[in-house]
Amino acid sequence: MKLSVIMPVYNEEKTIAEIIRRVKAVNLKKEIIIVEDGSTDKTKEILKEIIKQNDSQNDSDNKITIINQRKRHGKGTAIRRALKEVTGDIVIIQDADLEYNPAEISKVIAPIMAKKSKVVYGSRVKGHGKPFSSLMGWIYYLGGFSLSLFVNLLYQAKITDEPTCYKAFSTEVLKNVQLNCQNFEFCPEVTAKVLKKGIKISEVPITYHPRSLREGKKIGLKDWFIAVWTLLKYRFYN
Ligand SMILES: Nc1nc2c(ncn2[C@@H]2O[C@H](COP(=O)(O)OP(=O)(O)OP(=O)(O)O)[C@@H](O)[C@H]2O)c(=O)[nH]1
Ligand SMILES: [Mg+2]
Fold first, then answer.
1. pTM for the whole thing?
2. Does the keyword Protein transport apply (predicted)?
């Protein structure tokens, strides 16, 4: 089975080369689809260099496609754009920072490979057992915890980590979800629509190394409210 790794990228000059190296190191046949949105730092130049090197290596197990958009359109738009290029059997979302560990991708997609699940989320809650050391870490933890609770109440689900980045899907399922998201509401929208189709979301424990807003995190409080609204909207309308 082939894996498609979708990587949305905006201003990640510090981590983009390392995250691509780590994803390539995963021992699976895969394609990496990167959507970069007019970054204002050196991300674009670094990506150009990476694609040059990758093309010269002619590594058919690690095909990299880079889509450069002129303007910032948001993580959700980037994922929807990348989906048009997907040729693999399984899709996973991989952020371009180092918060999630690509060495755990095989573990996350294993239930899909084994045809036991169609959708699997990597759960930081199951992986950690306890929240993080900083105040900011706690705030983000509680934000995520409350969204998971809300999903379980509204959609009769049983998940522990709704806003996790590591969301893996059988391609056929993801391509059949009609997505409208532009920004970080990709997570609540896809969760809502998968559950509404009656598809079970399985979870696998994963580790997490959170970064701060100062270190480049772009999601914020506003996105929590948008997530709540998105979950309500898709529960009661369309
Ligand atoms: N192409 C694109 N990527 C974006 C945009 N905004 C954020 N990203 C990328 O989306 C990923 C997630 O952003 P983060 O700021 O790390 O947010 P997070 O808290 O990890 O968010 P989630 O994992 O989405 O819950 C990173 O790889 C960002 O570079 C955007 O406007 N366009
Ligand atoms: Mg992140």
1. 0.95
2. no
